[in-house]
Amino acid sequence: MDAANASALGLILNEILTNAVKHAFTNGRSGHLSLVVQGSDDHGTIRICDDGPGMPSAAPGRSIGTSLITRLARQAHAEATWEDNAPGTCVTITFPQTGVGS
Ligand SMILES: Nc1ncnc2c1ncn2[C@@H]1O[C@H](COP(=O)(O)OP(=O)(O)OP(=O)(O)O)[C@@H](O)[C@H]1O
Ligand SMILES: [Mg+2]
Fold first, then answer.
1. Pseudo-torsion of CA 96, 94, 10, 61, nearest 10°?
2. How many CB atoms lie within 10 A of CB 65?
3. How does DSSP assign 4-49, residue by residue?
4. Is 29 in the pocket of ligand 1 (CB under 6 A)?
C-alpha cells in the first residue's frame, strides 16, 4: 500500500494490539496473540486474534479506539471486521494492494 495509507494502517494495528493487551490480557493474564499477514494480487489481509474473554456481547458503545479504527480504515480504503474467536476476538483488516510505484 502507498505510504499515506500505510501510516493509517500502523495506527490501526497499534489500536488493535493495545486493545488486546488492555482487554484480553488484562491483570497479567497470559494467553496467545497471533498476527497473520496474507496478500493476493489485489488485496492484503492482516488478522489479529487473541484468546481472551471476547468482546462484550452487549455492545458497550464504541469508544474512541474502535471509532478510530473504523475511521482510519475508511480513510485508507480498508475495512476492519470483528469476529468471535471462541474464546477471544479476531480483528481482520482487508486493504487494497497497490503495486510498487503505483
Ligand atoms: N481484544 C478485545 N478483547 C475483549 N474485549 C475487547 C477487545 N477489544 C475491544 N474490546 C471491548 O470493546 C470495547 C471498546 O473498545 P475501544 O478500543 O473502542 O475502547 P477502549 O479500549 O475501552 O478505550 P480507548 O478509547 O482508550 O481505546 C472495550 O472497552 C472492550 O470492552
Ligand atoms: Mg481501545
1. 140
2. 15
3. HHHHHHHHHHHHHHHHIIIIISGGG----EEEEEEE-SSEEEEEEE
4. no
The residue type at 33: L
The CATH number that applies at residue 41 is 3.30.565.10
For residue 23, the enclosing domain spans: 3-56+64-96
Instruction: Tell how far the Cα of 42 is from the centroid of ligand 2, in angstroms.
Output: 30
Q: Residue 102 domain-assigned?
A: no
Q: What is the pTM of this model?
A: 0.92
Instruction: State pLDDT tens for residues 38-84.
Output: 998 899 999 999 999 999 886 666 688 999 999 999 999 999 999 99
| Number of domains the chain contains | 1
- DSSP SS3 for 63: coil
Q: Is residue 101 a part of any domain in this protein?
A: no
CA distance 88 to 1: 29
Cβ of 50 less than 6 Å from ligand 1: yes
